[in-house]
TrEMBL record, chain A:
GO terms for molecular function: RNA endonuclease activity. GO terms for cellular component: membrane. The gene is LOC113521609. InterPro entries: Ribonucl_Kappa (IPR056552), RNase_K (IPR026770). Pfam families: V-ATPase_su_f (PF23489). Keywords: Membrane, Transmembrane, Transmembrane helix. PANTHER family: RIBONUCLEASE KAPPA. The chain crosses the membrane at residues 12-34, 72-90. This is Ribonuclease kappa. It is a multi-pass membrane protein. Its main location: membrane.
From TrEMBL, chain B:
This is V-type proton ATPase subunit a. Belongs to the V-ATPase 116 kDa subunit family. Essential component of the vacuolar proton pump (V-ATPase), a multimeric enzyme that catalyzes the translocation of protons across the membranes. Required for assembly and activity of the V-ATPase. Its main location: membrane. It holds the Pfam family V_ATPase_I. It comes from the Eukaryota. It is found in: Membrane. It is a multi-pass membrane protein. The chain crosses the membrane at residues 417-441, 462-480, 550-571, 583-605, 664-682, 785-806. The keyword Ribosomal protein does not apply. InterPro entries: V-ATPase_116kDa_su (IPR002490), V-type_ATPase_116kDa_su_euka (IPR026028). Residues 95-129 form a coiled coil.
Amino acid sequence: MGMKFCGPKLSLCGLVLSVWGIIQLTLMGVFYYIRAVALLEDLPIDEKSTHTIEDFISAAENGYTQNAYNCWIAALLYVITLVVSGHQFWMNNRSSVSM
Amino acid sequence: MGSLFRSEEMTLCQLFLQSEAAYACVSELGELGLVQFRDLNPDVNAFQRKFVNEVRRCDEMERKLRYLEKEIRRDGIPMLEIPGECPEAPQPREMIDLEATFEKLENELREVNQNAEALKRNFLELTELKHILRKTQVFFDEHEGGANTTESMTRALISDDPNRHIGHVQLGLRDKQESLEFLPCFVAGVILRERIPAFERMLWRACRGNVFLRQAEIDTPLEDPSSSDQVFKSVFIIFFQGDQLKTRVKKICEGFRATLYPCPEAPADRREMAMGVMTRIEDLNTVLGQTQDHRHRVLVAAAKNIKNWFVKVRKIKAIYHTLNLFNLDVTQKCLIAECWVPALDLETIQLALRRGTERSGSSVPPILNRMETLEDPPTYNRTNKFTFAFQNLIYAYGVATYREVNPAPYTIITFPFLFAVMFGDLGHGALMAAFGFWMCYKEKPLQAKKIDSEIWTIFFGGRYIILLMGLFSMYTGLIYNDIFSKSLNIFGSAWRNNYNQSTLESNKMLQLNPDSDAYTQTPYPFGIDPVWQLAEANKIIFMNAYKMKISIIIGVFHMLFGVCLSLWNHLYFKRRISIYVEFIPQILFLVLLFFYMVLLMFIKWTSYGPNAAHLGSDDPEIVKTSAYCAPSILITFINMMLFKTDPNTRPQCNDNMYAGQIGLQKFFVIVALMCVPVMLFGKPYFIMKEQKERARQGHQTIEGAAENGAAGGAALPPPQHHDEDITEVFIHQAIHTIEYVLGSISHTASYLRLWALSLAHAQLAEVAWNMLLRKGLMSRDFEGGIFLYVVFAGWAAISVSILVLMEGLSAFLHTLRLHWVEFQSKFYSGEGYLFQPFSFEVILDSAGQGEE
């Protein structure tokens, strides 16, 4: 049932990475969503098209929301990675036990 | 319970053991692992000792076991190891049984192996023959339709592949005219495939092109019985003429290690032979299978016990090795041993000895005598799995002198802390702590796994250090307010924007003045204010000033603590003079110069700054305590050392930080400088005085003795010896003083590495974020999520490999240096030697590692 395409090391690596990714990216999404000032420099804002403060604020607002969603999308992708590598890890462990 | 602060108290003991009871007693002591035996016959070589025979028998048994183990490994049979079950050392009489068992097993296995090899050789020959018959059949069959004369056959063979065998074609053309005398002979055989080209060339040259070679590859690899490797071989057949060529061809075949097989000419014969070969192969296969089964059964039975046997044999061997260190007394009834023993464990050792006597059935109890000695006892610090790693860090520098202050307990806290000052980042610290926690949590299963990689062993050995370093880094990360180079605004920044919209729009860069309502005047409650993350222009300047001062403060306290520990040493070893002429001037020197500098820092921090009641005031009294008037500590300190006073360039400010500063500073420097000659000459002077005193007393006694008419003389050592001693003391003291005085300056500066590495780490973390992760956050659409997914993996890899592993390693090494050089040089001499008790556990562990 199911196929094995990752070795034990790769699947473990995937597991650790995706756990880390889920935690950090979800939190970053939350921070973007609540407009954390610390993340202001990490926003897609075009310096040339923002002349007034209002322009800048609206661009920043959009950027915050967009980045929040992007972070959550990436976190979701890591959930999928977690499931896949978890399955692979389980398969690897099981086969080594049955041997 | 021993203490961690000093090494255990050791006593030298003499042990008298009844000959019959000696084995059992030593076995009990080995289980206990608390006794270090001394070699009482160091000039007797290994072959002349009493129990050399037994040791040799153990070696033999071990060799047999290793042979068995190798065979078991080769068959891939798992060797059972029952954890926690360790057999006791067997009685000496059991040794004969063990020997017999191993002998039997080894012989059986050797026989089986020999048989198997012979069978395999046979099998190989038959398979090769089978292939020859099959392939040559093809050679002959290719032109079966033609006339069965050899000439046409040969010609057909020759014309078969004209491009490849140009030389052969010529041969064939010439042969045509001499066809009448043509009497072909041939030999067939098998050769290793890689030898074919050389073989062909050799044949061609040696026989001047008068032979004809055909070859075909055997597709399946054959097993070489002697090495059990899989080798590829080819079948060949050589046609030639005449006896002379035949001998030559045979010689060449021999030279190339080709095996020749008889191959009948007639097809019917060949077929018959092939049939015979096939049946024989089948028979052989069944026999081979049975042999393998037998071998497997023998090995499986052995695999169950082999670890157990290893332990037993190694224990016996260790016991006899130890018995070889003992002395025989004159009556030959009793063995005498000398051993170092922790004073606190004498009771347990007595108990173990009694158990050993009971087991051996001897009636005379062993005698354990304390001995008086002037020798330096070994250093023994009792450790547990937590303190073990820290103690090893200390031992790596040098084993403590007997009963010297042991820095390990302080290192447990200062080591992770100094590391964390350099590695301060909440995110990286959390990664490290998670790894350390996992290793500590899964300690038992990981230990049982026995992973042999060297790097893993290092990490696993230091798991508690790693966990602590991670936790401390998380703390300093919070203080620096750094998590992957970003800041957390937990309590709300104490800064706010007080510029209006037009100013904000028209300026590229603006400054927030703490001496205005931009700052709430109540500092951020914990660590650095998060607003600094956005201060791109002067964040580094601010952090540098803060971190440099912190490093010096930590460093001076660390060194002061080290000097205080030396007081503890002097008190313990009753070196009263050293307290007065070493410890006191040392600590005065450090306190008056460097601790004073630390105080200046605190004075600067507390007495200069905005006045909450009068923000931005121009009142001269208030300006004097404002940040504008804060002096540079470094300049102040340098001026203090040079007895110089710079006029203050800022006319509004005071020249000094407090009243009487210049006078006090001058006094401090003079006192500190006066400490140097005290350190330099104090100890030699006292020693000299003491010696003179003693000499005078000695003279008096001798004179007194002489007056009483007794023979005097040899009691007094020659005076030259004293002079030598004194110069040595002088040189030693000079080195020590120079090292301390110059050291306290350079060591203070050395603690700046705390700042430097911390800065490097913070900057590197920022670069990793800006160059990698930010790229994933600059997308204005939803595909940015996928991009972020990929970029995050790259950033994570860089974070772990460079920021956690490499930076962690470098911070670790710098911390190690700060402990070994800057801290321990103040009190630690490290001239002892380690207590190495006779313990089965250690012996078995090291044997187990050496074997893999």
